[in-house]
Amino acid sequence: MADVEEPEKKRRRIEELAQKMALDDANWDGRWNHVSKFLERAGPFTHPDFEPSTELLQFLLETCKILVIGAGGLGCELLKNLALSGFRDIHLVDMDTIDVSNLNRQFLFRPKDVGRPKAEVAAEFINRRIPGCNVIAHFKKIQDFDESFYQQFHIVVCGLDSIIARRWMNGMLMSLLTFEEGVLDPSSVIPLIDGGTEGFKGNARVILPGMTACIECTLELYPPQITYPMCTIASMPRLPEHCVEYVRLLQWPKENPFGDGVPLDGDDPKHIQWVFQRSRERAGEFSITGVTYRLTQGVVKRIIPAVASTNAVIAAACATEVFKIASSAYISLNNYLMFNDVDGLYTYTFEADRKENCPACSQVPQELQFAPSAKLQDVLNYLTKSATLQMKSPAITATLEGKNKTLYLQTISSIEERTRPNLCKTLKELGLTDGQELAVTDITSPQTLLFKLSLST
Ligand SMILES: [Zn+2]
User: Is-catalytic flag, 76?
Assistant: First the structure.
């Protein structure tokens, strides 16, 4: 019984501890003992060139500047892990607000926070909870910042659920690289740690831009988003999903049930209810069963089930890589870790290869091979359908007779209308000749991609 601390004694001890913590400006005695063990002594797993030192901890605490992209399931875990590992200068970018359905796993958020920006609430929570940590929130899109913003960071960590955003971020870090006589200047490299999860599967990877495989090098690893052919949706539906897609894509814009131009909001129960009712009617016409409210919402929102434990594993792997790279005490992951616990547990690490002619990181001009009789529509189809490019709404321009000419642009409706006739024209009719350069911009990259047209008959 002598081991049990008297309540009064315990109260005093805790009070003293709290006082000490407050007094010593967030660096109370022994706070970094666990981190120091990794930095102040060598071991069988440390990097061969590693020199133990007390300065490394100072670097983590005072100098190292980390950018975290995404404050969702992965982002909450990442922030917590990084802050507890000693990183204090952290910027956080997220464009989302908190939804009630986030609360089961995005543990920095409370019911009172619903509706507020994720980045702000997460930053406030971490700063309040972890003394000395200074997370700066940006309730913005990654596209709202330019090179000078991204240049200030030592490491970028992505916890995103969007492939487009990931590709854009990858392209941004590539655009920061500088070369001297064709040789990469290593000081321009900002390592990118990327985590991704989908249900019980996840991956973590380390990308050294210009040096190791980048997101675009391995684009084929991402399965294309499930889409159904329009003709199936419109005239011969077989699956309940086809019926929901019919209502979402065709009936909603035609009937505008909630007013002209009001977009379908997957988080609005009235909207989902409307789509659900119409989808059920459509399914009835074709004797299709299985249209439920839940399925309707799943199709409309393209829900990928989120599993808290997968996020925790992947974020832990990513945060560990940040620590390894920032301290250079350990050899970092080379370069792709996959994790799967759908059935038992499986994890595997491999080295993804750089692609020689990667459109993002290779400096090799991209070639487009077409027959002169091919139409611009064929080029557009290739840019969007090719597994290695997977563009979303590419805009194509060319310099013809010294003038910059937009051949096709989808995102601005007046220009789309004006340039649409070009799609049915052949490359020859458009005045494009062998060797012509085409400049293509797309939301998947901040950079303009240059293609060289190779016309063969
Ligand atoms: Zn690449």
Answer: no
Beta strands in 282-350 (DSSP E): 336-340, 346-350
- Provide the domain limits for residue 78: 18-199+307-333
CA of 287 relative to ligand 1 center, distance in Å: 48
Q: What are phi and psi of 279, to 5 degrees?
A: -65, -35
For ligand 1, the distance from its centroid to the CA atom of residue 360, given in whole angstroms, is: 5
Q: Which listed residue (64, 214, 217, 231) is catalytic? A: 231
My answer on whether omega of the bond before 256 falls inside 30° of 0, hence cis, is no
CA distances, 387 to each of 172, 192, 240 (Å) = 21, 23, 28
CATH code of 318's domain? 3.40.50.720
Give the number of residues written for the chain: 457
How many Å lie between the centroid of ligand 1 and the Cα of residue 357? 8
> 268 alpha carbon to ligand 1 midpoint, in Å?
39
What are the pLDDT digits (tens) for 101-156?
899 999 999 999 999 999 999 999 999 999 999 999 999 999 999 999 999 999 99
User: Same domain for 168 and 240?
Assistant: no
Please state, in angstroms and rounded to a whole number, the distance separating the CA atoms of residues 279 and 229. 17
Question: For the chain, what percent of residues have pLDDT higher than 70?
Answer: 96
Residue 366, strand partner residues: 451
Question: Given a cut of 60, is residue 22 above it in pLDDT?
Answer: no
Tell me the pTM: 0.81
